[in-house]
Specification:
The protein is built from 13 helices and 11 strands. By secondary structure, the protein is an alpha+beta fold. The protein has 3 domains: 20-137, Hect, E3 ligase catalytic domain fold (Alpha-Beta Complex); 141-218 and 308-386, no CATH class; 235-296. The strands form 4 sheets. The chain has a 4-stranded mixed β-sheet with strand order 5-9-10-11. A 3-stranded antiparallel β-sheet has the order 6-7-8.
Length: 388
């Protein structure tokens, strides 16, 4: 009889949850960070925790890794909905949650558009979804990242899929390295593999030319400085920290009154320790935020950072990686051209096969030691049909 009534109760709860879900109401366990439940049981934006959600999406959209974001959030004393430190799973769940763009979902049964006030702009959310998919694919090629400089940067011009590093050994025992379209390997695209040395040297040639252009570097520094000034006026994060600290202090005061009334046990002792730890972390995060506000970044600082690349050793693998990571956003390889997109607005460069051929015939204007792995002053041995 106990089992029967338990099953009946479970069915009634599920029926009630489905009825609430049909009205886009909270069912108890589906409220994400950034929202509160209103009087009508519908989600409303929580002004105290919504800035944390915006911060997470902004950091990931700007290229920070999951691990880096977790460290930033936990160092700032920010917590999940249940008051715990952020983890890999909690952050990935947040980044994939459609509620942040106003879509209410309940299991696989109910989906209602525009049912919740959005916290994240749709374009930011969908950009993050693309990045999550690409980074998931790239994770499967971790071993290639140390060897292939354009991992996560190189894309097929024909189908748009990511190109990943592969290697093979010829009959003579020589090792050959290529970038391969992931959809081609599934027979969904006919893009031919691209020689690693050829495409990496081509990209590095244009990056090197970029950092020798003082006018262009001045433009980048100015745009970066203006972005810094805009971001530096944003106070929602500091206000959220102060609000969180105020809540912790209120909870501590309530707990002290309970202790004065004689309520003291292991649970109150543990809770007091948790509140003290949260207060300390929030105070440290506020102090760090205040320090950042007091430090004034100058355009000259940014220019110094950019110009120091000109003094680097371009034969060094670490230097080459840093150049590509800092300046290159994406490279699209077609059959007759290569399109380079750099990490600043206003520069999409298309390099045709004819220009590449002309450059190979004339020789590149770079230190010969830069391309110590291959001689790109010679026309590649593969046919033009195989050239990107």
């Amino acid at each position: 009889m106990a089992a029967y009534y338990s099953e009946q109760l479970s069915q009634n709860i599920r029926r009630g949850q489905r009825a609430s879900a049909a009205k886009a109401q909270s069912t108890g366990g589906n409220r994400p960070l950034g929202y509160k439940t209103g009087p009508d049981k519908k989600f409303i934006i929580d002004p105290e925790t919504a800035p944390t959600v915006k911060l997470v999406f902004d950091l990931y959209a700007r290229g920070q890794t999951i691990a880096q974001i977790i460290r930033i959030l936990n160092e700032k004393g920010l917590r999940t909905l249940r008051g715990r430190p952020f983890t890999n799973n909690s952050l990935r769940t947040m980044l994939k949650n459609e509620k942040y763009i106003g879509v209410y979902t309940y299991k696989d049964e109910i989906r209602i558009e525009n049912a919740i006030p959005p916290i994240i702009e749709p374009e930011v959310f969908y950009k993050v979804q693309e990045m999550l998919r690409y980074n998931q694919k790239a994770a499967a090629h971790k071993n290639a990242q140390a060897e292939y400089l354009l991992t996560e940067k190189l894309f097929c011009g024909k189908c748009g899929a990511m190109m990943v590093g592969v290697s093979g050994t010829s009959k003579t025992g020589a090792q050959h390295h290529y970038y391969y379209c992931t959809r081609q390997r599934k027979k969904c695209c006919d893009k031919k593999p691209v020689r690693r040395a050829w495409i990496e040297n081509l990209v590095l040639e244009h990056v090197f030319a970029l950092i020798q252009n003082d006018v262009l570097l001045d433009f980048i520094a100015e745009q970066t400085y203006q972005y810094y000034l805009e971001q530096n006026t944003e106070s929602s994060y500091t206000e959220a920290l102060r609000a969180a600290l105020n809540e912790v202090e209120k909870s501590t005061a309530n707990l002290v009154r309970a202790l004065e009334a004689g309520i003291f046990n292991e649970a109150t002792k543990q809770r007091m320790g948790e509140l003290d730890e949260q207060k300390k972390e929030l105070q440290e995060a506020l102090a760090a935020s205040k320090l950042r506000e007091d430090l004034e970044l100058k355009k000259e600082h940014i220019l110094y950072f950019l110009h120091r690349f000109a003094d680097m050793d371009y034969t060094d693998e670490t230097c080459r990686k840093q150049l590509i990571k800092t300046f290159v956003n994406a490279v699209f390889v077609y059959d007759d051209k290569v399109v380079l997109t750099f990490n600043y607005s206003g520069d999409n460069r298309t390099i045709t096969l004819q220009e590449i051929d002309a450059g190979l015939q004339q020789g590149v204007h770079l230190p010969s030691s830069l391309f110590h792995q291959t001689d790109i002053t010679r026309t590649p041995t593969f046919s033009k049909a195989a050239l990107p």
